[in-house]
Amino acid sequence: MSNVQERFVRGLRAFGLVVAGLLLAPYRGTADEAADVAAMEARARRAGLRVLAGQHVILVTDRPPRAGDGVDDLPSCFDAAFASWCAHYRIDPETLAGWKACGCLVMDREPFRTAGLLPADRADFANGFCEGRRFWLADQANPAYRRHLFLHEGVHAFTISVRDLDAPQWYREGIAEYLATHRLTAGGDGRMQFVPTPVPAAAEHVEQLGRIESLQALAARGRLPTLPQVFAAPITAHDDITAYAANWAAVTLLARHPAHARVFARLERGPLDLQLDRRLAELPGWDGDRAARDYAAFVSEIDYGWDFERLAIDWSAGRPPAAVEAVAVAAGRGWQNTGLAPSRGSRCTISARGRVRVGEIHAAGGAATVLESSADGISLRWYRGRPVGRLLAAQWVDAAPAAAGRFTVIGEAAEAVCTAVVDGPLFLRINQAPADLADARGTLEVRITTP
């Protein structure tokens, strides 16, 4: 067992998970699965293909060795990712010590066909596919994306064989994207180490992945799918990056959002079959309407470094505002419900006072200068067309049944007159990127006056 797996098991036992019986039942596997993997390895060696072995994967490729391309590191990366997959499903990795998959990284398909390593009915695959504990992927020019695709297909092999996965498309592809998303960081020994990052902190951590950018593009065109549409998408609707992105976003929301994570974890402890949607709808605590609105809020404003705790929204209906109201707006949060619900067409005036910390500037020598802002924002930094630190007022506007809703800004800055566009709550926030919320400090005091 690897050091990563040993630390995982020790952590589980420290929290009493093994004793409490909260882990899934041990996986025993089948002789046929193991034989398939062993047979593929033997054929590959006879054919003279390159074979790289890890604890949980055999990698077969016709790609010649090239310094710095990262292919030699793929098996060890797979093994490290394997521990995080076990952690997600609350499986003790000791029960899977003998589990092994075989992945084929293909440049030229002919050597694999000749060696009997490529199913005839799947020889024209575009990017990758999986059959049980065997998977195939086309080689990629970008090492980071090659690694992601290798792990994506590896998750399929893991979930199909270990969890008997036969779930709807949104979960099957969404969980593969969720568990494959990662970055590499330098360890104490100078070697690169796998770090799972289901929600990437920065674009450079996931080169060429493009999931967040594709959702941003859909949002800009007003073509984002709703959560019910993602759930209902047919199996054929995953041929482009936007479908993968929408599936990833659905799983990510349900797995990470504080309002849905517990219910989703219970769902994943049960069968992962085609009745998954029905079981989710029947689980105590599941709120489909709230999940649909949370999904729309997530994908309509999605960005790197998304923090579900800080960006969770209180959707309470609110009450009609009095003539004068006072609320505090925290710098380290997303949209904050004021508890006030103006009627459509009514007007109010917002007046904000105070200063908040919105970040730091680091000089070449390492010295940091704290950035503070009033409710008007600072001209030194901008986010999405507005100064960082600027106070924004908005209302949530539900779109037509077949379209996703979104926040509509109705006022901004230290002094503003706002006209309500719907009957519903007034939300306030301080403008800044999601990744910067954890470093923000302070509050603005806002006075809301209604004639």
Description:
This protein has helices spanning 3-14, 31-46, 74-88, 109-114, 143-162, 169-180, 211-220, 227-232, 241-256, 261-268, 276-282, 288-300, 308-311, and strands spanning 50-53, 57-61, 101-106, 128-131, 134-138, 182-186, 192-196, 324-330, 336-337, 347-353, 356-362, 368-373, 376-383, 386-397, 406-412, 415-419, 427-430, 443-449. The protein is an alpha+beta fold and 451 residues long. Strands 1-2-3-5-4 form a five-stranded mixed β-sheet, sandwiched between helices. Strands 9, 13, 14, 15 and 17 form a five-stranded antiparallel β-sheet that branches. Strands 8-18-10-16 form a four-stranded antiparallel β-sheet, with no helix packed on it. Helix 5 packs across helix 6 (169-180), helix 6 crosses helix 9 (241-256) and helix 7 (211-220) crosses helix 9 (241-256). The radius of gyration is 25 Å and the shape is elongated. The protein contains 13 helices and 18 strands.
CATH class of the largest domain: Mainly Alpha
Beta fraction of the residues? 15-25%
| Cα Rg | 25 Å
| Strand line-up across the major sheet | 1-2-3-5-4
The number of helical segments is: 13
Structural class: alpha+beta
Share of helix among residues?
25-40%
CATH-derived architecture of the largest domain = Orthogonal Bundle
CATH topology of the largest domain: the name is Neutral Protease, domain 2
| Number of DSSP strand runs | 18
Number of discrete domains: 2
N- to C-terminal distance: 69 Å
Shape: elongated
Task: Provide tags for this entry.
single chain, 451 residues, alpha+beta, Neutral Protease, domain 2, Jelly Rolls, five-stranded mixed β-sheet, 13 helices, 18 strands
